[in-house]
Structures are given as structure tokens and as C-alpha cells.
Amino acid sequence: MKLVFWTALWVFILDQVSKYVVVHAMNLAQLGQIDVWPPLINLRMAWNYGINFGLLAGDSPLTRWVLIAVALVIAGAVLWWIHHEPGSKWQKIAAGLMVGGALGNIVDRVMYGAVADFLNMSCCGLNNPYAFNVADISVFAGAIGMVIFSPGKKPA
Known about the structure:
alpha+beta; three-stranded antiparallel sheet; globular
């Protein structure tokens, strides 16, 4: 569980520091957009009140607290799973990625009422309208890792 904890902690710190630097220090909240290396890497301020791709978006206190509760339950379920069915080092890292990312987005919802998304990447003539953050990347990579690195059940 130490590996899960340390992975989650570093993901959480990286997520929160990156959000603070980009949203506040670089003033993206006011500027709205900063082209870093167009079109590959751009910063686009997006307050996500819903889940991925703006689904369930609505600036409602009920939605906010339901999504916080769901994220806490998922993080708890991942921790329970990894504790009761210990897997490989990589599965523990994946669990830490999920938990750290979930906690990073929970803090945003508590502090701002929405998740601060700012990374935008486009390539090859395709214009990506969506923004994301370090926590989103971590949750996505962690979910894939939990599946890929889960110990398989052997047939009886």
C-alpha cells in the first residue's frame, strides 16, 4: 500500500501545483487561452462542472456534491480492491494514479465548484475542442493500468 500512497501523493501534488501555476500564476483564468506550441500544446481554460467531455454538466450544487461523492466512492473502491487482491507493482502504481487524480479533481470541486481543465492538444489538422488536466490523465492511465495489470484468475 506504500506504493499506492506515494504514487497518489505525487500525482495529487503535481496536479494541484500545475493547476495553481497555470490558472493563477499564468492567469489563464482571466486570459482564457495561451498558445504554448500550437497546435500541439495549448492552454485553454475550461471549468468542467460535469464529468468527461462535459457530460452531466450543470452548475448545480447537487451535481457538484454527487460527483464528489462518486469520486470518493470510486477512490475508496480502488483502495479496497488493491488491499484485498494485491497485484503487481504496476497495478499498485495504477491504483495510485487513479486515487491521486480523483483526489485532485475532488479538491477542485470543493474549492471552485468545478474542475479546472486547461491542457488542449490538437494535431494533424484535427482540432480538439476539449481540455483536460494532470488528474484526468492520471485517472485515465490508472484505469487502463488497473485492467492491464490485474492478476488474472486461473481456471479451476
